Amino acid sequence: MRIFISTGEVSGDLQGSLLITALKRQAVAIGLELEIVALGGEKMVEAGATLLGNTSSIGSMGILEGLPYILPTLQVQRQAIASLKQNPPDLVVLIDYMSPNIGIGTYVKRHLPDLPVVYYIAPQEWAWSVNLRRTNKIVGFTDKLLAIFPQEARYFQEQGAKVIWVGHPLVDRMQNAPSHQAARVRLGIAPEQIAIALLPVSRHQELKYLLPIIFQAAQTIQAKLPEVHFWIPLSLEVYRQPIEKAVKRYGLRATVLLDQQKEVFAAADLAISKSGTVNLELALLNVPQVVVYRLSSLTAWIARKILKGSLTFASPPNLVVMKPIVPEFLQEEATPENIIQAAMELLLNPSRRAQTLLDYEEMRRCLGEIGVCDRAAQEILQMRPNNS
């Protein structure tokens, strides 16, 4: 069986790799040979995919911020479509990566109507409330939608999609994370040290919009608490140089690491993070966190005034239960002062900390049972042509 998987950005590459590993495991169990071709990144290659194009660093949030990525995105989209045309797979799996995947899905429906399409981790239309046009497109070309959030499952079901809620794949991934104590020993963190994880960047634009406010906040926290040390796990090696330069400029006591994200998360007493998948990873490891996000002011204005978008919450932990489990500061509220105040409270107020951990428990119950990736893989393999 030949499967084509399409995803982009760092988080898509991670989710794609977890899915490929589960697909291979399930294929062995039923005596099926698998070939996987993909748009994705290095993690997917390590899991056994043949890449048609590397999309792990092609990505942005926002309208103006996306302009530099239009051409590279169109290029990989064209490569993918050419490959689908020349050598059609047995099945297409789309993971997040909204605009390119809507393009690919629309093409498949129009030109290869017998080719089944599975959408796994659909774009967060259910959280954005912008308009139904994109939702209708997704529903129109998707034969089976595998939802990771209960709210997402309800939303797409109401719009007419065939939906199966499988749970969130990070529930599986965090199973083999080290304990808080073991992670601290591994990283050489002394018992009296306060370890704060800083997660400012997984997209290029965030160097400009997020890194300065997060590092300014860190500077003040360091002045208030001399026992603090910052840990910065890189999402991609390409960010090492700008981050290390900024660490020097702000005079932070910080360690920058690649490929030790799980250890850093497990060891941390607190995280100050951009909004994204990492927020759920931190929550599953019981790490209190402050979440920030900022786009250019013009993009924010367009989204509010012209697209009439309304966002109840941005960070996944809050979205899961639709209540403010973690403090999040968006756009004008994303200031060093707000970050400092929320961070100090989570570090020094035991009842605030305890409430966060209680709320994390409620959130965890909404993410499904262990075995998410295997459930998703089984649903996908059930769609092979000779099985229908």
Description:
With 388 residues, this protein is an alpha/beta fold. It has 2 domains: 2-167 and 369-387, Rossmann fold (3-Layer(aba) Sandwich), CATH 3.40.50.2000; 176-365, Glycogen Phosphorylase B (Rossmann fold, 3-Layer(aba) Sandwich). It has helices spanning 9-29, 42-47, 70-86, 98-111, 125-128, 133-141, 150-158, 170-173, 180-187, 206-209, 211-224, 240-250, 261-267, 277-284, 297-306, 316-321, 336-348, 350-365, 372-381, and strands at 2-6, 35-40, 50-54, 91-95, 117-120, 144-147, 163-165, 194-199, 228-234, 254-258, 270-274, 289-293, 328-330. The strands form 2 sheets. Strands 3-2-1-4-5-6-7 form a 7-stranded parallel β-sheet, with helices on both faces. It has a 6-stranded parallel β-sheet with strand order 10-9-8-11-12-13, with helices on both faces.
The amount of helix comes to: 40-55%
| E-strand count | 13
Fourth-tier CATH superfamily name of the largest domain: Glycogen Phosphorylase B
Which class of the largest domain in CATH terms?
Alpha Beta
Main sheet: strand order: 3-2-1-4-5-6-7
Overall geometric form: globular
| Residue fraction in strands | 15-25%
What is the SS-derived class? alpha/beta
Distance between the termini: 14 Å
Query: Roughly what is the average pLDDT, rounded to an integer?
Result: 88
Describe the secondary-structure layout:
Elements: E1 2-6, H1 9-29, E2 35-40, H2 42-47, E3 50-54, H3 70-86, E4 91-95, H4 98-111, E5 117-120, H5 125-128, H6 133-141, E6 144-147, H7 150-158, E7 163-165, H8 170-173, H9 180-187, E8 194-199, H10 206-209, H11 211-224, E9 228-234, H12 240-250, E10 254-258, H13 261-267, E11 270-274, H14 277-284, E12 289-293, H15 297-306, H16 316-321, E13 328-330, H17 336-348, H18 350-365, H19 372-381
